[in-house]
Amino acid sequence: MSPRLSPERAAGLLSPVVSVSTTAPEGAEGSHRFTGQSARLVVQGTPTGGTLWRYSAASNTPLARGTRYWFIAEAPEGPNSRYNQVTGEFRTLAQRVTITISDIHIVSDGDAESAGDLWFTARSCPRLLFEQDDLVESFSERVQWSEGRHAVNRELTISEPSAPDRVRLLIVGIDDDYNPGSGYGSRDPFQVFFSCDTGGNLSPYKTAKAE
Amino acid sequence: MDLDLTRYPGAKATEQFVRRSQPLRNGSTLMFEVRGYVTVTRE
After folding, report:
1. FRET label pair with B34: which of A56, A197, A207, A210, CA 20 to 30 Å apart?
2. What is the model's pLDDT at position A183?
């Protein structure tokens, strides 16, 4: 935001104060206040000629993505200017990530005498970030693939309104010879392989994982 | 695959990737390579 405030800012000592909040300001015109949590932005000014200055305000820390914010900009009273306040609102951009799996090349299909019976699925950190997990078939249905390249063309799209800046995706391939339901007493076989919180054990048994 | 989405600036950015599973070991018999791309959009 860069409200053009006038005049007599030339001394640089009368910088406006800009605050933002995710809750609307309260109060009467000219004396609005945030009653909830707010953050004060860093304001910098540059002279634009004459007695006019242009100010810009920025946050020291990133604002939440895809979020509605309100702002209050206040210019203090100066020797030749009155106190002034403006309020308004804006929305930060939402960030979305899509992972497209074009194809999977089977280097070893896990079965010496025939095609492998395979299931490919994905896990993420944060957990359940994507709307769907399975890439090729499912826990109960397997695809018979031999070694070579196989088209997938599957998209993983996020289920949240906005994605965090850091995302971990694990693509897991499972051979039908391995029953993941019996693994380590856990119904979710992937709990034994990784954890978003602790990292987990990344040494799978008869299961390959593309990191 | 760890993604730092700040590396994809702008309204839309796309990057291709290739990832190979861990090598066969400890009785593992399945090995594969995944090709695809990441698309980050902001709106």
Report:
1. A197
2. 40
ipTM surpassing 0.90: yes
* Beta-bridge mates of residue A47: A53
The residue of A63, A92, A106, A107 whose CB has the most chain B CBs within 10 angstroms, and thus the best one to mutate to test that interface, is A107
Q: Is A180 helix (H, G, I), strand (E, B) or coil?
A: helix
DSSP letters for A25-84: -BSSTT--B--S--EEPEEEEEEEETTEEEEEEE-SSPPPTT-EEEEEEEE--BTTB--E
- What are A193's two structure tokens? 């392989």
Residue located via tokens 């993604």: B3
Q: Taking the CB of residue A132, how many other CB atoms lie within 10 A of it?
A: 12
Considering the entire predicted model, what is its pTM?
Answer: 0.74
Contact in structure between A1 and A71 (CB atoms under 8 Å): yes
CA–CA distance, A61 with A73 (Å, rounded to integer)? 18
Chain A residues closer than 8 Å to B43 by CB: 93-94, 96
